[in-house]
Amino acid sequence: MNLHTINTLEFNQIKEQITQYALTKEGKAKIGCLTPSTNKRQIEAWLDEVSEAVEILKKSASVPVHGLDGMEQLIGNMNKGAVLRPDQLTKFYDFLDCCGKMRRFMKDKIYYAPRVSAYIDAIDELPELASEIIRCIRNGRVDDYASKDLLKIRKQIAIHEERLKEKTMQLIRSNKYKTYLQENVVSQRNGRYVIPIKKEFRNKLKGTVLDTSASGSTLFIEPEEITIYQDQLTWAIADEEMEEQKVLSYLTGLVEEKEQQIHLAMETMVHYDFLFAKAKYCRFINGSKVSINETDEISLIQARHPLLGEKAVPLSLRLDREQQALVITGPNTGGKTVTIKTVGLLTLMVQCGLHIPAAEQSKLCVFEKILVDIGDGQSIAENLSTFSSRIVNIIEILKDTTNRTLVLLDELGSGTDPGEGMGLATAILETLYEKGAAILATTHYSEIKEFAETHHGFINGSMEFDLNTLSPTYRLNIGRGGDSRAFAIALKLGIHPKIIERAHHITYKEEKQYTTEVTTTWKLKELEKQVMVNKYKDRKSDTNKTEMKVSIFQHGDNVKISPTNEFGIVYSGPDTHGNYVVQIKGEKSLINHKRIKLYIAANELYPDDYDFDIIFQTKENRKKSKLLSKGHEENLTIDYNE
């Protein structure tokens, strides 16, 4: 499916809603990559998966997939020579523990969810690895009992620290240093014990200055007497770090040996998160598993647009190989666009393995392509689309359409001359039908409605409109096109029946009587004001005869043409519609009198006997005319091209 279809049908919003139900970053990322399939068996397998997951959620809403976060990055850094840190090893243990919980969770689900519960078998139990990690790593550090050498070294460190503290405290309490001390405390700088000495007594004490106070009045000195004890402690700590690295290297090796099993377990757990997120969403929209086919059958029963929720009006329609093109008519904001979007979006959802908000008896066809040309009249952004850009889109649709394509067209042919737009729309629909596509199209053109009534394979539909409330009901009626509601609505809103009757005659070239429901005297008087005879004497009207006042121009008049402001010379006219033939820049054009303004009259420009052929005829024609005036000439003709 192309990106334009995905965006237009708002399928990305569906994915965003599903993402909210995923518990892990990896699961959310997989939902973001969700794309429809065109393989019927694969789609059926996906639908079965979701159905089983829904059944599991009905009995147990909490699924243990929380241990996945951060695992993808850890797996990616394995076997690159780096030793795993204690916190990373703890993460591996949490993941293995989560896998164990999932195994126990799925144990009793095999009877009603055999497919989903069987996925746990892809996860190998790794008890040895888990037990070694928990034995060696505790509270975010390597445990004392991870190795005998580490236990021995840490005991030595404890002894050295005790001796160092004791010796340092002896120095503070001794009278030798009492005068030099800033305060009787022992502190550490860079892991070494120091005592605070007043600056002026620096030379009185042998030792190394490791730090100075902010004011500079206090020096933190490591006395010479404790240096040997401090060095012994430093060497022991270095031995501890080496031994810890040995333990961490050992555990890293154990993890890397099981990389393939861990990677497969992670993929399985990500799939579980992905699957149960889809199932939770399907429960949220009250979705049903519908059947799918490759026989061009679309049968939706009580279907709703998933993004509209409970506000959506149920939609029911059916298309098959005998009738695979639906033309929908109806008023603006009546729900035509939502209807075709609903069909397209639900088809996308099913081909992604999702349940849809429709009756279980519904059926949808698997399409290789869904091509759309939808400009929502209620959207400011879509109103920026021009007729040209939509035609470019239609061209791509015509090129890509096959007999495995669903085509959705909104207000086909709009944005241009109604007559030409109607003809173009009809031709496009015929071509798409001949290509074998399933078609849903909306239109305002009554001629297309008549075309659908008589053309094989097409069926009419209309959006219901309530004349009592003057509002759409958003219900789709299949089998007949919508009647024009403009006259009925205008009459309901208070237009005089005579005006409606005249409009009906102009539109349909037939007489029809309209009556008002108004009975109140004062309302009837107000109504009559609309058709009262104009009292101005200089304005006359004749309802029985329509006369057109046409500006009169003479042959040879120099005129100005609006809105281009070009100049031309009148050649002939007017005709019955008030059109003149005007020569502009050597070419004759048919221009309506309303666009012509006299610039210089012919009698002011030319003498009475002026030969206008000099202006309007070519030099060649004038030569031929002169020859013919002298006598008959064989094979000589003059072409007066107007």
From TrEMBL:
SMART domains: MUTSac, MUTSd. Gene3D superfamilies: P-loop containing nucleotide triphosphate hydrolases. GO terms for molecular function: ATP binding; ATP hydrolysis activity; ATP-dependent DNA damage sensor activity; endonuclease activity; mismatched DNA binding; rRNA binding. GO terms for biological process: mismatch repair; negative regulation of DNA recombination. Keywords: ATP-binding, DNA-binding, Hydrolase, Nucleotide-binding, RNA-binding, rRNA-binding. It holds the Pfam family MutS_V. SUPFAM superfamilies: DNA repair protein MutS, domain III, P-loop containing nucleoside triphosphate hydrolases. Residues 405-421 form the DNA mismatch repair proteins mutS family domain. Coiled coil: none annotated. This is MutS family DNA mismatch repair protein.
